[in-house]
Q: What sequence folds into this?
């Protein structure tokens, strides 16, 4: 199991994410240590139709750290104004 996890977290997806064409919403916590903010910014640049929002004070599980804000952001993304 540990070897599978290591492969997953060490497998770079740069060549794959460039092919995404769907509207993509990236939500990251600025205190995420598992998937640091520099990776979010990199993905945001690679995915042409993407938007990045950073939740201040949140970690890797931003939806747990600030569920009200997270849900409001998702709702806005899905339904608009």
A:
């Amino acid at each position: 199991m540990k070897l599978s996890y290591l492969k997953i977290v060490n497998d770079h997806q740069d060549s794959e994410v460039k092919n995404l064409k769907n509207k993509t919403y990236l939500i990251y916590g600025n205190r995420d240590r598992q998937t640091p903010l520099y990776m979010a910014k990199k993905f945001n640049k690679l995915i042409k139709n993407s938007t990045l929002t950073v939740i201040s004070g949140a970690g890797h599980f931003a939806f747990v750290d600030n569920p009200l804000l997270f849900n409001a952001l998702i709702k806005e993304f899905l339904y608009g104004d």
